């Protein structure tokens, strides 16, 4: 089947896990190995992804081979594949725009971003020159202008987009129409982890409802020590993330909770946690006869690898959609893989729809059904 030529915008911890994972799972055949949801999608295994372009703005990464840059500071994620095969791809200078929060300069060298002293490349031109087919957007939360710049570059260069961040592109009607008009698929917005805070909270909220327990109030508090959490110390950059995570859980409820009864979002930056994310979920409900039901859960994960397997699936679904001539938001994979898809579904239904899409079973009919709902 050949390779899937991808570009990466933002060579942070998540990109590090993705690139390591491509190498780690190269040649995976047969039963699905631990850490993956699918061995093959559209005939492509995880190792068929080839990173042909990478963009960042940090001076410790720009100009370096991608295989080295993924381990450069301030990246702090698990090096589960400490030696990655060299590809010849260099990290190029992207546009800064609003990609660096001002407060990042106040932190030590090991943690903060420092912009490279280099002119930004023409992203659309580089996408064309490298033959990229899918761009994976990993820019920092709150980078509204920068994400839109890369989305526009995709449209200009004829490249599909997997938007892993809570800047709303696929779920925005105007942007969706632009990708549809360009004949390009897009899967977004804001990647779910495999077993992360959002997917667990969604499933528990649905469990309460399905088992006849009225959810009265809930919170989800998250702490971490990676640059994602450091970036979100700026409250103005945090709002889109809080909205994405809150609405993702609200979408699973038969009746929405009042704003005062639901609190979800990144809570604090704890430097020594590194890429370890700790989530605390509390749910209070009312069961049979009005008897109280209370649930408390603590989830600890290495944040970046927890999403990389989902991204590998989303990229392969974007290529599959492109091979099938689909354009605009790819609804079933978006509903399953993303926190803020164009159409929210229950996760069990999203899983069935995504499997049907991958299998090619009535793919067009599945998409029409989801859109109608």
Order of strands across the biggest sheet?
A: 3-2-1-4-5-6-11
Q: Low-confidence segments, ≥5 residues, pLDDT <50?
A: 362-373
**How much strand?**
15-25%
Any idea what the shape is?
Answer: globular
Number of strands: 11
Figure out the total of helices.
12
The succession of helices and strands, N to C, reads: EHEHEHEHEHEHEHHEEEHEHHH
State the share of residues found in helices, binned by percent: 25-40%
Largest sheet: 7 strands, parallel
Structural class from helices and strands? alpha/beta
What distance lies between the first and last C-alpha atoms, to the nearest angstrom?
35 Å
Q: What is the gyration radius calculated from CA atoms?
A: 20 Å
What does this entry look like structurally?
It is a single chain. The strands form 2 sheets. Strands 3-2-1-4-5-6-11 form a 7-stranded parallel beta sheet, with helices on both faces. By secondary structure, it is of the alpha/beta class. Mean pLDDT is 93; it is low at 362-373. α3 (123-130) packs across α4 (144-157), α6 runs parallel beside α8 (235-250) and α11 (347-359) runs antiparallel to α12 (363-372). The chain contains 12 helices and 11 strands. It is globular, with a radius of gyration of 20 Å.
